[in-house]
């Protein structure tokens, strides 16, 4: 049992099905929740990237370029949201992996990578690939910001002559 119940749920959870009460012994570990969050966040980022890719293909086929400021703001905002979501998921998973690798004696969490080395290697590979996804989302967000703020550029050549 961890200190203050941070790492493990209480265990016995009452579940109601109609009038029957059943007790389910299910221990939810923090690492399990973090890895699920990482998978969900990367799934959302992949779905969003697929939608954006389809939008880009359709705009290329039509031959239209993004001139709408509201659409540019929506794309920029969604890119920022996905970037921060993937970065948060990678950071949480990396912290969980550090706890699995090194343990936390103050919280009575033991090193588990000594016992489950293959699983820990696979988690490490997954976190490394998720980090690459997060960095690519940062680059995509930068491109989106450039596309948005160039719409506000105006005539810089005329204004700079006055100074």
TrEMBL record:
Keyword Calcium appears in the UniProt entry: no
Q: How does it assemble?
A: Homodimer and heterodimers.
Give membrane topology per the record: Multi-pass membrane protein
Which portions of this protein are annotated as coiled-coil regions? Answer: none
GO CC terms: plasma membrane
Positions of transmembrane segments: 33-51, 71-94, 127-152
| Entry similarity comment | Belongs to the Casparian strip membrane proteins (CASP) family.
Q: Which residues form the Casparian strip membrane protein domain?
A: 35-134
UniProt xrefs under Pfam families: CASP_dom
Record carries keyword GTP-binding: no
Query: Which organism was this protein described from?
Result: Escallonia herrerae
Domain of life assignment: Eukaryota
Q: Which UniProt keywords apply?
A: Cell membrane, Membrane, Transmembrane, Transmembrane helix
Q: Which PANTHER family match?
A: CASP-LIKE PROTEIN 2B1 (PTHR33573:SF64), CASP-LIKE PROTEIN 4A4 (PTHR33573)
- Where is the protein found, in the record's own terms? Cell membrane
What protein am I looking at? CASP-like protein
Q: Which InterPro entries would you find in this protein's record?
A: CASP/CASPL, CASP_dom
């Amino acid at each position: 049992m961890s200190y203050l119940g941070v790492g493990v749920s209480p265990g016995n959870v009452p579940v109601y099905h109609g009038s029957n009460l059943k007790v389910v012994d299910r221990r939810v570990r923090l690492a399990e929740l973090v890895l699920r969050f990482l998978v969900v966040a990367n799934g959302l980022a992949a779905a969003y990237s697929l939608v954006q890719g389809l939008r880009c293909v359709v705009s290329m086929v039509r031959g239209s370029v993004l001139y709408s400021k509201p659409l540019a703001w929506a794309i920029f905002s969604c890119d920022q949201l996905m970037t921060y979501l993937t970065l948060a998921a990678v950071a949480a998973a990396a912290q969980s992996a550090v706890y699995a690798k090194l343990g936390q004696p103050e919280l009575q969490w033991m090193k588990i990578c000594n016992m489950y080395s293959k699983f820990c290697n696979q988690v490490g590979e997954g976190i490394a690939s998720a980090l690459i996804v997060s960095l690519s989302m940062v680059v995509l967000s930068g491109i989106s910001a450039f596309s948005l703020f160039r719409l506000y550029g105006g005539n810089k050549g005329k204004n700079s002559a006055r100074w």
